[in-house]
Design goal:
The chain is mostly helical and 807 residues long. It is 63% helix and 1% strand. The protein has a two-stranded antiparallel ribbon with strand order 1-2. α7 packs antiparallel against α9, α19 packs antiparallel against α20 and α21 runs parallel beside α24. It is flat, with a radius of gyration of 55 Å. The N and C termini lie far apart (120 Å). The N terminus is likely disordered.
Length: 807
């Protein structure tokens, strides 16, 4: 506001509308017509106080302590005052101590407000000193104008240099773009030339081996120029080019020879054997097939180029001709008299794989070698030949017929083990086709015994073929083949399981649905007392016997075994719940339409065996529950686990074992506990029936002169006689285990004790009520006769009748 002293001239305190007026030299244009004189109304030399009041300057110090911020102990303000303070190190230190950035921001904002408040406070307190500083300052406007000239020169120099550098940079970027464009065009041209070159060479070589594309002249025109200088590596770049990785596996690059000239066939004019000529022809076909793969790669890389697309018919014709030639060569090699040339067959198989025609090779092997061998075995079989014998003989004959081809197709070096599988698409496919045509009825699940026998023989054949695979990739190719899937579809395991489940469950259900309890036949009981339990155990054993279970449907058979245990538990629980109820009365049922006598019949409605069960029956069932649980855990589960462990490994066996153990646990917790409760009620009610003689105690001591009893009443020994008899019988017959017998005895004891307490309480309450009534009657009589109610005789001297009864 003031530039030289505490008393300023009016011309210096103005608000300029033109920003450049602020930089005008002193003494020039002091009176701006557009300026607003803010000093109007003041004296010539105003004081500081008058100036502040006139300009309405707020010199009050804001109260920053109204909402005082309390800094935490970890927020140390000392480092901020150091000259060597480094904000990055401070933030890193605070963060390493566990303080988040949000916490630091809150504290720093608060600290900034405190510092700002202190700065305002100091400025307001020493405002006179701040104004006095302006007296010692030089003329600011003049100094700044002296700086403008060199600064303008510096800005001009920097701008010129920047423009020059930007121009050079634009020129460099343009040159790089042009270089890239030229490189792309060159690569495209080289790709087109290379593709055309390879097509021409493949056609020439195919004609030279007598397998030229249809419509082409015999033997490519020798005058046709063919550029042999270009190779695939020239198009794709040098060894450091990352695009080299795009060359697919299996393409053979002859780096030590000049392109396809190395593929020219050498006919054995001077050789000793024509077989050598044929082998050379197979080798040439393999090499041409590898180049055909390279050609397909180049075609795919240049698929957007019109020129490359125009070569597609020629490329397709070359591939078709090569495939036909390779197939013919393979069939000739397969049809050659023994011993067949292994090297020749290997070359033909590799040629098929190189042009992605492995299926043609597998079909040829199956048709030329496997099918005749299998047909001879099938034709020689008789009606007495079983399905497993026929299948085993067919598989053995098929493998023997093409063992050389199986070994060649499993070659890992050329990746053939993953691209073709003779064992599946040649051997298995032809064997399955021939055997199914000869014995179609052997696959039906209508006869489950024959079905499972044949199915296991079929799976054994599969395992035998898998053992002949050469690698994991070969096993994967075998299992993913269409022949493998079709072979498994012939065996309807779902229908077989339904047949077996109905067969096994039907026999068990016939016992569980019976209204009465049938004792097990001696010698066929399996250690069980009841026929229903024996039938349940027999169903469990049979469901996982070797002649029934199918490991390929193990999940279904495991679920069936768990359902058998659960069904038995439901049968036990329903019977236990029905103990003590009356069976339904017979009802009259109308005669059936085909009934000969046409008379209605009286039929007992369905009901549970528990309606007529005795304590002995319940004990037998309780013992059977224990025996069945023990046999499931000790005998059934280990055998089942071994079967699953062999087929699927340890995790599957553990899961199945846990499933069955859970079912046995549910049987012990639920149904077995219900049987204990039913036993407690039956035996306890028998004991309570004996205790009803307790009512005779009142008649014995009422209005008599008998002394206090010195021994228990006569009915006491009979109160626990039913429990004692039950325990002796079960122990003699070994029906219950010691633990179960103890549980039943304790439950019955608690039940009888509770009933005894109720009956004794009722008896004593009745006796005391009667005695009180008699005493009141005596008192009224004594009062009526004028005598004393306390006059008592000899009877009053001893214990009362109530005391005797309670005693």
């Amino acid at each position: 506001l003031m530039s030289s002293s505490r008393s300023a001239p009016r011309s210096m305190v103005t608000v300029d509308r033109d920003p450049e007026a602020a930089y005008a030299p002193p003494g020039e244009d002091e009176e701006d017509p557009d300026g607003i004189d803010v000093m109007e109304g003041l004296s010539e030399n105003p004081t500081l106080e008058e100036l502040i009041e006139h300009l309405q300057i707020d010199t009050s110090v804001p109260d920053y302590d109204q909402e005082a911020h309390v800094f935490p102990d970890w927020f140390d303000q000392t480092p901020f005052k150091s000259k060597d303070f480094n904000v990055d190190e401070w933030v890193e230190t605070m963060h390493s101590r566990g303080h988040t950035m949000e916490e630091l921001q809150v504290q720093l904002d608060a600290y900034g407000k405190v510092v700002e408040g202190k700065l305002v406070e100091i400025t307001a307190r020493d405002f006179d000193k701040f104004l006095a500083l302006s007296d010692e300052l030089p003329e600011i406007e003049g100094v700044m104008k002296d700086w403008d000239t060199p600064l303008d020169k510096l800005i001009a120099q920097i701008t010129a240099q920047r423009d020059g550098m930007q121009k050079e940079l634009d020129e460099m970027e343009g040159a790089l773009k042009e270089k890239k464009r030229l490189a792309d065009e060159r690569a495209t041209l080289e790709l087109m030339l290379e593709t055309h070159n390879v097509v021409a060479k493949v056609e020439r070589l195919l004609h030279e081996v007598g397998a030229g594309p249809a419509g082409k002249e015999s033997a490519a025109d020798p005058e046709t120029p063919v550029d042999d200088s270009l190779g695939v590596a020239d198009v794709l770049g040098d060894d450091d080019d990352p695009d080299d990785d795009d060359v697919p596996e299996g393409y053979v690059a002859e780096e030590d020879e000049d392109g396809l000239d190395a593929l020219k066939p050498v006919f054995a004019t001077d050789q000793a054997s024509s077989a050598h000529v044929v082998d050379d022809r197979a080798r040439v076909l393999e090499r041409v097939a590898s180049e055909m793969g390279r050609l397909r790669f180049l075609q795919n890389k240049g698929k957007k180029l019109p020129f490359v697309r125009s070569l597609a018919p020629r490329i397709d014709a070359c591939e078709a001709s090569l495939a036909a030639a390779a197939k013919k060569a393979l069939e000739e090699a397969l049809s050659a008299p023994a011993p067949r040339d292994g090297s020749r067959i290997e070359h033909c198989l590799r040629a098929h794989v190189a042009v992605n025609r492995a299926g043609d090779a597998e079909e040829a092997i199956g048709r030329v070698l496997v099918e005749p061998a299998v047909r001879r075995v099938v034709d020689s079989a008789t009606a007495a030949t079983s399905f497993p014998e026929l299948l085993h003989a067919c598989v053995a004959a098929a493998i023997a017929s093409c063992e050389l081809e199986v070994e060649a197709s499993g070659d890992r070096e050329f990746g053939m083990d993953a691209k073709m599988c003779v064992l599946a698409n040649s051997v298995l496919a032809k064997v399955d086709e021939a055997v199914h045509a000869a014995r179609p009825g052997e696959y039906g699940p209508g006869e489950p015994d024959r079905f499972i026998r044949n199915q296991k023989a079929a799976m054994a054949a599969i395992r035998g073929l898998e053992e002949r695979t050469s690698s994991v990739a070969n096993v994967t190719a075998f299992r993913e083949s269409e022949a493998f899937a079709a072979y498994h579809k012939r065996w309807n395991l779902a229908a077989y399981f339904n047949v077996r489940m109905g067969e096994i469950a039907g026999e068990m259900t016939s016992f569980l649905d019976d209204f009465s309890l049938v004792r097990a036949v001696e010698g066929h009981s399996g250690g069980f007392a009841l026929a229903a339990t024996a039938a349940t155990w027999k169903a469990l054993e049979r469901s996982w016997s070797d002649d029934v279970v199918c490991v390929h449907a193990a999940d279904k058979f495991l679920r069936f075994a768990a359902q058998i245990v659960a069904r038995y538990g439901s049968w036990v629980k329903m019977g236990a719940d029905a103990v003590g109820t009356e069976p339904p009365a017979p009802v009259e049922q109308p005669a059936a339409p085909n009934d000969p006598d046409g008379q209605p019949r009286r039929v007992v409605p369905e009901h549970s065996w528990g309606c007529a069960a005795t304590a002995e029956d319940l004990a037998a069932i309780r013992g059977d529950c224990e025996a069945l649980s023990a046999k499931v855990l000790d005998s059934f589960v280990p055998g089942m686990s071994d079967t699953l462990r062999t087929a699927f490994g340890e995790p599957a066996a553990d899961t199945a074992r846990e499933c069955m153990e859970e079912g046995v646990k549910e049987l012990a917790v639920g149904p077995a506990a219900d049987i204990n409760g039913a036993l407690m009620r039956i035996i306890g009610d028998r004991c309570v029936e004996q205790m009803k003689q307790m009512k005779g105690i009142t008649a014995t001591f009422r209005m008599t002169n008998k002394p206090l009893p010195t021994r228990h009443s006569h009915f006491v020994p009979g109160a626990v006689a039913p429990l004692k008899l039950f325990m002796e019988q079960t122990a003699r017959k070994k029906i219950l285990s010691a633990e179960s017998a103890t549980q039943v005895a304790m439950a019955v004891g608690e039940y009888v004790a509770g009933k005894y307490a109720e009956m004794a309480s009722e008896l004593v309450a009745g006796v005391k009520k009667t005695e009180a009534s008699l005493n009141r009657l005596k008192d009224r009589r004594a009062a009526k006769d004028g005598g004393s109610a306390a006059g008592g005789g000899d009877g009053e001297k001893g214990p009362s009748d109530t005391d005797k009864i309670c005693k």
